[in-house]
Design a protein that fits this description.
By secondary structure, the protein is an alpha+beta fold. The chain folds into two domains: 19-221, no CATH class; 242-344, TonB (TolA/TonB C-terminal domain), CATH 3.30.2420. It is built from ten helices and six strands; from the N terminus they run ααααααααββαββαββ.
Length: 346
């Protein structure tokens, strides 16, 4: 996995869409829809129309930003993604964050980039938490943007339905409470402002933790790469090649900066032995890929191992299942479903 470079921050592409203007336009559309609710006897229909208009505007903004990123080369996208990680731009601002750069790199690459795919897998939980925080502070435009970002990273993410439902319910509740907004007391306004500030502070801390975790993962993966060894003279057959896999995130302190304490639901690997290359496949120089999903239990053990896809079938699956079954993580607050991709290449 490549090292992080110490390059200066790169300028954004001229094709970059101004995210601030888009957010103001979207906010105006939603505000007009909510205002209309107080003038009509049936507020449900205007609220639904306003929510649909806001979601459509967010989707259009995401498409425009994706088109701007598509104009960049794969190497530039990878460089900017690493730069965004160093600067703790994990999922924000729109159009200039690590997740969007890596998603654009995935669309542009002929085959998956292992470091980008691993980074997306590691950063997605932070985007989910940020979306839930945005819903909690009634910032439904930001929550919808994050939902679309999570969907682009993993269309099968189990959190997508929950986030979409929470956004819809929050918008409906906001529409019903809009007429009574002017009746708030100064104490209520101050309490809401304090809660909003705390949510913003929590979001900044979350991005800092995510960036530190991703940088630690990159550094540990680079340090863990074994040096090439020479085969014994009497051995005629070449050593069995090891599968190319995305290294799991590992949290360890470094001389430059101390790794943050992992969150209760953050996966920290203790032991992740890699699957062996089947001898028959090695002799026939067969390459392939296996995508596997599994559940990490609260005690850090692994269960419910399921092969999502395998190419070619019947060659690498057994070794992958055998290896993942022996994986061990630090205990977490609750069980999590994880997906990993193993690339077997000669």
């Amino acid at each position: 996995m490549p090292h992080f470079s110490n390059q200066a921050s790169l300028p954004m592409s001229p094709a970059k869409v101004p995210a601030t203007s888009l957010r103001w336009a979207i906010a105006l559309a939603l505000g007009l829809g909510l205002a209309a609710c107080s003038d009509k006897p049936e507020p449900a229909a205007p609220a639904t129309a306003a929510a649909a208009a806001a979601e459509a505007a967010v989707g259009q903004a995401a498409e425009q930003q994706a088109a701007a990123l598509a104009a960049l080369s794969g190497e530039e996208l990878k460089t900017r993604g690493r730069q965004a990680l160093r600067e703790q731009r994990i999922y924000a601002p729109a159009g200039n964050n690590a997740m969007e750069y890596y998603i654009a790199l995935r669309k542009k690459s002929a085959k998956p980039d292992a470091s980008a795919e691993s980074a997306l897998m590691d950063l997605q939980p932070y985007a989910v938490i940020a979306a839930e925080q945005a819903i909690g502070r009634a910032d439904f435009l930001e929550a919808e943007r994050l939902r679309l970002l999570i969907q682009s990273a993993d269309p099968q993410a189990p959190s997508l339905g929950r986030i979409a439902d929470a956004i819809a319910k929050g918008q409906a509740a906001a529409a019903q409470q809009a007429p009574a907004a002017d009746t708030r007391t100064p104490e209520q306004i101050a309490a809401e402002e304090a809660a909003r500030k705390k949510a913003q502070d929590d979001a900044r801390a979350l991005q800092a933790a995510a960036a530190a975790a991703a940088q630690q993962r990159e550094a540990e993966a680079a340090a863990a790469q074994p040096a090439p060894t020479q085969a014994p003279p009497q051995q005629q057959q070449a050593p069995t090649p090891a599968p190319v896999v995305a290294a799991p995130p590992v949290q360890r302190p470094t001389p430059q900066t101390a790794a943050p304490r992992p969150a209760a639901n953050e996966l920290v690997a203790i032991s992740t032995p890699q699957p062996a290359y089947p001898p028959d496949a090695a002799r026939s120089k067969t390459s392939g890929q296996v995508v596997v999903s599994f559940t990490v239990n609260s005690d850090g053990s692994v269960s419910d191992i399921d092969i999502v896809s395998a190419r070619p079938r019947g060659v690498f699956e057994r070794n992958v299942q055998s290896a993942v079954r022996r994986w061990k993580f630090q205990p977490i607050a609750g069980s999590q479903t994880v997906t990993r991709t193993f690339d077997f290449a000669q």
